[in-house]
């Protein structure tokens, strides 16, 4: 799973696992949920999406 997620969103995956307390499982789940950060027009859009789900 880690290899598949990392292969699809390498930069985003590495950015997430760099955050203390966020490991490969949470990073993979987050990317599986939102797809890619470029799907949103701003970081605020990601925050609003996370708040609404």
3D structure, described in words:
With 53 residues, this protein is mainly alpha-helical. It has one domain. It has 4 helices and no strands. The protein has helices at 2-8, 10-18, 24-34, 43-52. Helix 1 (2-8) packs across helix 2. The longest helix has 11 residues, at 24-34. 6% of the residues are buried. The mean pLDDT is 80.
The helix-strand sequence is: HHHH
| Biggest β-sheet strands, sense, barrel | none
How many structurally independent domains? Answer: 1
Mind telling me the C-alpha Rg?
A: 11 Å
Tell me the overall shape.
globular
Termini gap: 23 Å
Mean pLDDT: 80
Low-confidence stretches: none
Strand content: under 5%
The chain-level structural class is mainly alpha
| Oligomeric state | single chain
Number of continuous helical runs: 4
Helix share, percent? 55-70%
Query: What is the number of beta strands?
Result: 0
Write a brief caption for the model.
The protein has 53 residues and is mainly alpha-helical. The protein is built from 4 helices and no strands.
Helix and strand topology:
Layout: H1 2-8, H2 10-18, H3 24-34, H4 43-52
Helix pairs in contact: 1-2, 2-3
Notable traits:
53 residues, mainly alpha
């Amino acid at each position: 799973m880690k290899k598949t997620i990392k292969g699809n969103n390498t930069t985003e995956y590495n950015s997430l696992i760099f955050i203390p307390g966020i490991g490969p499982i949470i990073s993979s789940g987050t990317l599986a949920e939102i797809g890619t950060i470029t799907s949103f027009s701003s970081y605020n859009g990601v925050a609003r999406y996370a708040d609404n789900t």
